[in-house]
Amino acid sequence: MLSYIVIGICIILLLLVVYISAKPIGMGIEARRNINVSNSNDDSNFDDEVLDKKDENNLSDEILKLEELNKKGILTDEEFEKAKKKLLD
Fold first, then answer.
1. CA-to-CA distance for 37 and 40, rounded, in angstroms?
2. Which of 80, 58, 55 is nearest to 70 (CA)?
3. Which of 18, 33, 46, 80 sits CB 3.0–4.6 Å from 70 for a disulfide?
4. Pairwise CA distance, residues 89 & 77, whole Å
């Protein structure tokens, strides 16, 4: 009989803990979803900015490489100008 009372008390305590912790857990899950939604909106703008900067860096690097080739005499001035114009367009 005593074991039934102990098991009953344990079940009641378990249910009480689940009931008390359910609301904060739900709030945490909702907050996490809101953070993910707001980050996904911000990330798209961030990705565009990063890609634009990356393209600018690649473009400037390519022009510098072309300039080096021109200085070394591998490219003529005319070829350099054509290649630079092609990169800028």
1. 5
2. 80
3. 80
4. 18
Do the beta carbons of residue 87 and residue 62 sit within 8 Å? yes
pLDDT in tens, 38-60: 665 555 555 555 555 556 668 88
Q: Encode 55-80: b = buried (16+ Cβ within 10 Å), e = exposed.
A: eeeeeeeeeeebeeebeeeebeeeeb
HSE-up (13 A, CA, CB side) for residue 71: 6
- The pTM of the full predicted model, rounded to 2 decimals, is 0.40
Long-range contacts of 7-15 (CB under 8 A, 24+ apart): none
CB 67 within 8 A of CB 80: yes
